[in-house]
Design brief:
The protein is mainly α and 117 residues long. It has helices spanning 10-23, 28-44, 48-59, 64-71, 75-105. Helix 2 (28-44) crosses helix 5 (75-105) and helix 4 packs across helix 5 (75-105).
Length: 117
């Protein structure tokens, strides 16, 4: 069973990592734009409570139980608040990504019925 064709080994993984790096386009500009939009969305588009919970969860690495104890709320409340904040951020970033793609491709690349204004 050890010699099955599905088991590739570490050398294959290393070769694939090198190949992926060489074939990947430089996306530093898109990543910078994404980080900028994420920071803006955190400041403007989520509630204060969602922002606070998201920063404790992702920024400080606390789990939901620890956040609940610190903030004096139930763990399920923390979970629900984080999920709602993530959904808001996803919507904002998706809209921002659509706008970025539209700017790069030009408005003629998208039919007028798909424009969101």
């Amino acid at each position: 069973m050890a010699n099955t064709r599905y088991k590739r080994g570490l050398s294959y993984a290393a070769d694939m990592a090198v190949y992926t790096r060489e074939m990947a386009a430089d996306n530093a500009q898109q990543l910078d734009k994404l980080k900028e939009n994420l920071a803006k969305a955190l400041r403007q588009d989520v509630t204060d409570r969602q922002r606070q919970f998201l920063l404790l969860y992702y920024g400080q690495g606390l789990n939901m139980r620890q956040i609940g104890e610190r903030m004096g709320v139930n763990k399920s409340t923390v979970s629900r608040t984080i999920k709602r904040g993530e959904a808001r951020l996803r919507r904002c970033l998706r809209y921002g990504a659509d706008r970025l793609l539209e700017e790069e491709a030009g408005p003629e690349a998208y039919p007028k019925s798909e424009h969101i204004r």
